[in-house]
Amino acid sequence: MLNFIFKPFNEMTDEDYQLVGFKSGLEIHQLLLTEKKLFCRCPAGKYNFEYNAEILRHMRPTLSELGEYDGTALMEFKTKKDIVYRINRESVCTYEMDDTPPFLINEQALDIALETAMLFNSNIVDELHIARKQYLDGSIPTGFQRTAIFSLNGEIPYKDRKISIIQQSIEEDSCREVSDIGHTRIYITDRLGMPLIETVTGPDMKTPREVAEVARICARVVRSTNKVRRGMGAAREDVNVSVEGGTRVEIKGVPKISTIPLLTYNEAKRQWNLLRLREELKDRGITPETFKAESADVTTLLKRPHYLPLKTAIYDGQRVMCVNLHGFKDLLHWETQTDTYFSKEISDRVRVIACLTTLPNIVHSDSKSDTLTSAEWALIKKHMNANESDTLVLVWGSEMDTDTAVKEITIRAKEATIGIPSETRQALDDGTNGFERILPGADRMYPDTDLPPKQITAERLEKIKKQLPEPIWERENWYRELKIPPDTIEELSIHPLAAVFKEAVEKMKIDPVLAAVVTIQWTKKLKKAGYDISLITDYMMREIFECYSSGIISREGIYLALKKSVELGKFYAELLPKPLTRSELKSIIKREKAYLNDMPLYDKSNYNKLLTGRVMDAVRGRIEFEKISQILDEHDKEAKNGK
Amino acid sequence: MENNNAYKGYRGAALSVLKNFKAPVWSDVDLITPKGTYSGIILPRSEKADDLHIVLKMPIGYNIGILAEAVTDIKVKGQKEAIYKIPEKAFPVDPNKPNIKLLGTGGTIASRLDYRTGAVIPAFSPGELYGSVPELADYCNLDTEKLYGVFSENMGPEQWIGTAKAIGREIDKGVQGIVIGHGTDVMHHTAAVLSFMVQDSPIPIVMVGSQRSSDRPSSDAALNLIHAVKTAAESDIAETMVCMFGPTSDEYGLLHRGTRVRKMHSSYRSTFRTIGDIPLAKVDRNEITPFSDNYKKRRKDRNVTINPVFEEKVSMVYYYPNMQPDIIDSLIDNGYKGIVIAGTGLGHVNKPVYPALKRAQEKGVAVYMTVQTLWGYVQMYVYDTGRDMMELGVVPLANMLPEVAYVKLGWALGQTHDLDKVKEIMLTPIAGEITEREPSNGYLIFQGGIPEVEEFISKYRK
What we know:
- The complex is a heterodimer.
- By secondary structure, chain A is an alpha+beta fold.
- Chain A contains 19 helices and 23 strands.
- Chain B is of the alpha/beta class.
- Chain B contains 11 helices and 23 strands.
């Protein structure tokens, strides 16, 4: 089966993905639209790179219940990073700094979370238990994220099947990384502590396209509450991917759904190619048992290296170490992802764990580019006692960092004989992914002893249920029946005014297409004209639709009424253009005629057009166009009759 | 109580459901409700929580609570009790390194949370400490003794006396430094009382704790312990000190004199501050930097005075406007032998209390005055009211901190009930509890918001 070779992205078929056993699930993070943060009373959503204080912390691994260090924890400790937090006093208090215990959970955030659980048809837990999920990368100053599961076992319809929603948790967001250079990692804390929900789907998606489609549906389900944040970074996906015989690998922080297909393709390809690499190694007789590698200091062999990064390193007094990977000849150039090779897996580990962050950080004898001269390689080869079937990897830096690097190079090479390491990987701009950290286990969960369990009462759920939007798939089916233009269906289904739209169509019997145009296009038109359309309330819209349906305003009047209401921030019946009486219209026509009669018109054939236009301007929104022309005709007749 | 440990923490409805289905805690179960089936391990429940829910640990590590009355069946698949053990590694012995004794009294300096029960399991043996803070072996050979296992607020005369005696024993055995692990809430009370009970120590006595428990990755416990052990092993300062974070950043610790230190924030890491003076020194992993040479120096001998006595009938009264004399009267009527008042301003109480003070004087109760401003001296001559009070036998205690005055009065009355002798003991500085002068940098509370302060603090990590 491993004979299959991944085709280019665009040529892969559903059958190909079936063949490799592609499986993928999503973890969707969505920031909630709340006024304050989740466990303190800092304002939420104040993004700012400016800061007025800094804090330095180090993260120490704590032991799991069995006295074991969590894999990730150990990795982060090996890196020995100084973690620097930048703090803006406007958006961060002593809670986020981990100098004050948590305040009780934000009830507004919990309500929104529970609303989404209902939309996903999930079982809401009876009692919320807040846990601490350890993160030793420093992305949260406490070293853990406060998180709690609030729903389990939901599902959404997709194609002719269901996608399972395994669980949802409510949690505080982490810091944004500013930089990670050498042994210093800097974070900005503005986003820290903001409430978000994580929705986890089953590994039910069978192709990269399906992953993106389901991501889109899930995103729209939560947006249909209209109580979640929008914009850059407000929704982030983690994508889990595996292939037959592979390992669940998590790609973190995918900012755009449109990038998911290529990212998941590349991860599937990477896993497949790593499995093929294992076969190749096996054919060469290299297994976990027979794997051999040794290292040595080769600094003195490289007096004046041809290769610039090495030259600089030696000039700066750094050390150059060489690792000999026995029998690995050409395998560092084994393709893993599109235009990405096994050497990248090694370089990533060296960068992240040994903190050698300046690239290139390794060079190897399989490299096709111009690095060391053949004479230099020969010298090192001799020193290492390497033969033709071996591969040499050079790494340079401080003594401490190169020690770590040598270990990591050996570890990663050996892992190739075992299979695919459990990792979380970072989404990169070109659609490939890079190593971020070892995938943490369940061992990193602790109960949060600072906060009591919280009962979720039936009354609370009842209250939320009363204002729950209908599921988007139900709305969409109905819109299709109504023959709403297909390109507006998705937008309308999660529109803040979707509920009023329904009333307008069902109760007020307004033409569905007109109601859709008003709801979507006319509000957009107002936004374009610089109005704050978030001021349009359900009440405002309902009143306006009602005025239209009872004939008080015309089709055109809807727009004008909407505009006026937004201007004033409130709907007043008095503001509506009063319906035009017949005599009023007649006197307007008379006035406009008089005006035009005084004008020197070069082209008299335009007279009627001009008159209609002027009358229209004067009565806009107060009467339908058809009625105006009807009265104008009557007026003409009367004039001709000599009255 | 038949439910005892098998159904730990469960009461009422939840207990009867678990019993009904024979599912004690630690059972690995499928729990069936009309809403669905939940799999996981039944955890013990906190006794403070309600009696309606069953707590389940799911395979992904999260816990949830399930309404007991909705449970229709529980299928027990097995038992999975967590037996928690801190890994031990033999603490290395190096004959060239000083021998340090760590005395444990409780607190969170070295503990691990049992994540299933929420119980705190102390890591304390040298092996356990080495397993979690291996850096300690860079400074010393460590021996440990668990004197008590109490929360900070339960420390009292019995523990103070026991600790003082233990210090005496260790000095006699020839250790080169002592570290005392202690909860932080009343660490300054213990630091003060040990400063009186243990006098002229030839070696450093360093009290240490943590503001964030050591089961948290960002805990200050390990670094505080490293600083304290370094101080005990290498420092030249032979006094009773508190060693805790200087800033909230993981940068350095401060060594505070035991009689001038106070916990000043309920939760900050840098909560301990020296009041009315400057700290003795700062300490990081590499060096100890004294701020002056005004301290008692380390000696090679093993001489020390241990005076472990304490009169328990001593109280402290925090004065407030409209305080009634019955507060003082009730202390007198209940047989109290000493009262420390934390007065307003320069050391005042209102006139209605005077008759009670007079009565205290007549009954032979020792009454001392300190200031609730914490900084500054009691000065009872400035206003007539102060002079009136002194005539009523109230003795001003200069710039002794109220808590320090409280423990010192207990210690003095433990030695004698002769009020003149008590007064002599109280007014004779033993360990810096009264200083002759307050340096101008002894009172520095930066006011946030002031431009020059903001400019200054922005240059340093908090």
